[in-house]
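re: ur question from earlier - yeah i can do the single chain one, its not a big deal. heres the input i used so u can compare w yours
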Amino acid sequence: MAAPRRMGVDGAKNRGLFVEAAEQLLREEGYSAFTARQVAAKAGLKTQLIYYYFQTMDDLILAVVQRITTHRLARFEQAMASPQPLRALWELHSDPAGAVISSELQAIASHRETIRAEIIRSARHFRALQIEAVSRLLEGRGVDQQAYPAAAIVAITTAFARALVTDTALGVSDGYPEAVMLVERALRQFGEGPPPDSAPP
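and the output i got, formated as tokens:
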């Protein structure tokens, strides 16, 4: 019976370089360019080293998903601690950089069940955190949550932000300026001020 393959420790510098390189490659060139050779070249390391730290390329992709999840949760905590948390949450969802990597990971997930399961697990966890946080905010501001359920606000915000970023990247912007205007109106209705960099009226 063959001895199990010796794996690199999780905190190893090279492991981190591979994960960072894999994420950058997905953002810049997409899944079609995602090979062990390309990731290694991006990291400036030898290709065979990938399989010292990851048993398969799927394991590397899972590490990318976990890295993105960690960063997203950190940004979410920052948003909730900001003076305008709902506005900060909207900005988090409408960040084009996040939409690009999400699209690539969804493409991968459609062909790899393990990765799909992890993306679904992290997405549901993140959605639950958002609903709980938004519900607390609305309650603290005296908003009627029968009329404006936190779960609905989070779902609509997530879906609209994703469509806004995707369509705008394609050059389709019809209706979005007006839709963003409604978002601004809703933010102010829920107690958020104007964007920090906006000019005073």
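DSSP finds nine helices and no strands in the chain. not sure if urs matches, ping me
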